[in-house]
Design brief:
The chain has six helices and eight strands. It is an alpha+beta fold. A hairpin with a 2-residue loop joins strand 7 and strand 8. The longest helix is centred in the last third of the chain and has 21 residues. About 4% of the residues have low confidence.
Amino acid sequence: MITIDNPVDSPDAALIDHWEEAICDARILSPREYYDAISNFGNRVKHEFYDDQVIVDFEIPLSEMIGNFFDHLKSATSGYASVEYSVKEFRRCDLDLVIFHLNGDPVDALTFLVYKDKARKFSENYAKRLKEILPPQLFAVAIQAKVGGKIIARESIKALRKDVLAKLYGGDQTRKDKLLKKQKKGKKLMRTLGKIEVKPDVFFKLLKK
């Protein structure tokens, strides 16, 4: 048994017998009027009403608690709820290791452990977000999500187009074609050699989402 606290450190799939994840017991205390909004948080075990308050007990994976859970709770209850939780056990689960590639290069910081039945949807949504957030380059950028080397989602960012004919007023078509051909060749070289820099603000924006 080994503990993984970063998906990048996951061993080869052939060496994995099964995955287990931390499951939490959690309790939300909220004004009664927000019961409907919080009743589907995690796997609800029970609830009790006390005058104008409600206490909801539920199970939830630790990975969801440390994600956007508190933002969702604040939004659902206008900030009037409180929550406490503790890890109660590790439970067997089916996970996929999703690795995002930018122009064929895997990105460690964009590597995730995701439930198998949610991996494709997660990857499609994440790829779309990356397309929105990553700045355009002078060459086209391919965004691919892979599981076990197989592509399960992809998006592409179009290259910034530089007008190489801007300084040509009239002129013969042969010269224009030559410049366009040179530009095309240059972009192909950049696409082959270029590395995509993923700045910290990209991850902040993804986390906010």
